[in-house]
Design brief:
The protein has about 500 residues and is mostly helical. It folds into four domains: about 110 residues, Serine Threonine Protein Phosphatase 5, Tetratricopeptide repeat, CATH 1.25.40; about 110 residues, Serine Threonine Protein Phosphatase 5, Tetratricopeptide repeat; about 100 residues, Serine Threonine Protein Phosphatase 5, Tetratricopeptide repeat (Alpha Horseshoe); about 120 residues, Serine Threonine Protein Phosphatase 5, Tetratricopeptide repeat (Alpha Horseshoe), CATH 1.25.40.10. Helices cover about 75% and strands about 0% of the residues. It contains 28 helices and no strands. α1 runs antiparallel to α2 and α26 runs antiparallel to α27. The longest helix is centred in the first third of the chain and has 20 residues. The protein is extended. Belongs to the PPR family. P subfamily. Keywords: Repeat. This is Pentacotripeptide-repeat region of PRORP domain-containing protein. InterPro entries: PPR_rpt, TPR-like_helical_dom_sf.
Length: about 500
């Protein structure tokens, strides 16, 4: 009899499982009810499995019904199932049901896992129930569930949004005291929260140690919050110092950074000198507002006689980057008409733009005009022209220009060498590319990751696999890593040769 009932129970469980997997939750529930009314004994594990399945399907109404039913029959959930149920209910923002479950858990001595605890705390903070969140934290610790960085971050964020800055700072110190290293999200919660509350000096004092430690990667959002806070406090020198630091720390200022500074300058004014105006122009251009920058130059800078070649170069570069090359050329004509002499940077910007747009005839005219003004190309302009001819398949012309650059005493850098190596490799002239590669090393110019990738790819295309492996070894000795796609191609080519042999 017992064996028969055991087999029947297994059949019921299998049917319920199959219906759940097929997404037929209502049908699974019907079979479960049928099993409950049969002679088969239903265990706590059966309720845990079913409720877990209902939570995964976000059927919280049915999960609640099953939960009430199992409680009447004297069964209880495991800590794991409670955690999954609470997590799901929090995502559905059903705090009423969570509040009913927690006392039951306390009676049983069950503790939410850290994942569910954090989700619950986050919802409490979102619902402006920060005081309850703090009580939950204390209760967690009492029951042996230690908070993690995410826990502290949630509470710091919630306390700042509630205007309880002293408590947020206390929570920050508590986290540090526990030996945690704040991550980017924790730092963002503290800095943004304090800066929004007008506590930029406090935010800076708390975060500067982490910032200088270099163990945590900072996002633009953190730097921008500090810059904005110092601008609002009228401390532009500190704001500019943060901007300089973020650049040195590998975080490039974004359009938001520049807009913050621009808004400050427009509100509180600039120092009225040409350097400050040009910095303002650069900010506008980096914020993708070249037309606004041009109006500033015309209506303010030119009127005050504070306009120079840097001003025009800044605008020409912005319009060229925006693919408005003709507009950039009009600025060139305008500056010449006003008696402002162009420099090599001016010509580099325009020649690069016209070559990119396929207008090599205009680029040639500009080179001639440049020569007539006794302005000579520098390494950047030479490299720009070499790269253009290499990409156009005119590698011999590029080589002649390269040699001319060297003869004039302008030593190529790794970017110049990479341009010519790329052209030679793509023209199936890898032996010449190898000669250039050896030449650059002899001249004390060190190859970079791009150089090695170009050379190895060229050698693979021309089936010079042993040489490619040798260059790969050299690359690894220098601490560079080859792209997985190129290394896989090389290994595959070697295997093909071995198989054919």
């Amino acid at each position: 009899m017992c064996r028969r009932l055991g087999a029947t129970r297994l059949i019921y469980r299998a049917r319920i499982s199959n219906y759940v997997k097929a997404g037929l939750v209502d049908r699974a529930l019907q079979v479960f009810d049928e099993m409950s009314r049969s002679d088969c004994r239903v265990f706590s594990a059966d309720y845990n499995r079913l409720i877990g399945a209902l939570v995964r399907r976000t059927r919280f109404d049915l999960a609640d019904r099953c939960y009430r039913q199992m409680a009447l029959r004297g069964f209880s959930l495991t800590s794991f199932t409670y955690s999954r149920l609470v997590s799901g209910l929090c995502r559905a923002r059903n705090l009423a049901l969570v509040d009913r479950l927690l006392p039951d858990m306390d009676k049983l001595g069950c503790v939410l896992d850290i994942w569910a605890s954090n989700i619950y705390l986050n919802l409490l903070c979102d619902e402006d129930r920060v005081e309850l969140a703090l009580e939950v934290l204390d209760r967690m610790v009492e029951l042996g569930r230690e908070p993690d960085v995410v826990t502290y971050t949630i509470l710091i964020d919630g306390l700042c949004k509630a205007g309880r800055f002293d408590a947020a700072v206390e929570m920050w110190h508590r986290m540090i005291g526990q030996g945690f290293v704040p991550d980017k999200i924790a730092c963002t919660a503290l800095v943004v929260g304090l800066c929004v509350g007008g506590k930029v000096e406090l935010a800076y004092d708390l975060i500067i140690g982490v910032m200088k430690g270099g163990r945590t990667e900072f996002s633009c959002l953190i730097y921008n919050a500090l810059i904005s806070g110092f601008c609002k406090a009228g401390k532009i020198d500190k704001a500019l110092a943060i901007k300089s630091f973020m650049g040195r720390n590998g975080c490039k200022p974004d359009s938001v950074t520049y807009n913050i500074l621009l808004n400050y300058y427009e509100r509180d004014g600039l120092r009225r000198d040409i350097y400050s105006y040009n910095q303002f122009l650069k900010g506008l251009c980096k914020a993708k507002q070249p037309d606004r920058a041009y109006r500033l130059m015309v209506h303010e800078m030119q009127v005050k006689g504070l306009c120079d070649v840097v001003s025009y170069n800044t605008l020409m570069a912005a319009f060229s980057e925006d693919r408005r090359t003709r507009r950039a050329y009009k600025l060139f004509e305008e500056m010449c008409g006003k008696g402002i002499a162009p420099d090599v940077v001016t010509f580099t910007i325009l020649i690069n733009a016209f070559l990119r747009d396929g207008s090599s005839d205009i680029a040639k005219e500009l080179l001639d005009k440049m020569s007539g003004m006794n302005i000579f190309p520098d390494r950047i302009l030479y490299t720009t022209i070499i790269d253009h001819f290499c990409k156009s398949g005119k590698v011999t012309i590029a080589q002649n220009i390269f040699n001319d650059m060297v003869e004039k005493g302008i030593w190529p850098d790794v970017v110049s060498y990479n341009a010519i190596i790329n052209g030679l490799c793509k023209s199936t002239r890898v032996n010449e590319a190898m000669h250039v590669y050896e030449q650059m090393q002899a001249r004390g110019c060190h190859a970079d990751e791009v150089t090695y990738k170009l050379i190895i790819s060229g050698l693979i295309r021309e089936k010079k696999l042993s040489v490619a492996c040798k260059v790969w070894d050299e690359m690894m000795e220098k601490g560079f890593t080859l792209d997985s796609s190129i290394s896989e191609t090389l290994i595959s080519a070697i295997h093909s040769v071995d198989s054919a042999g």
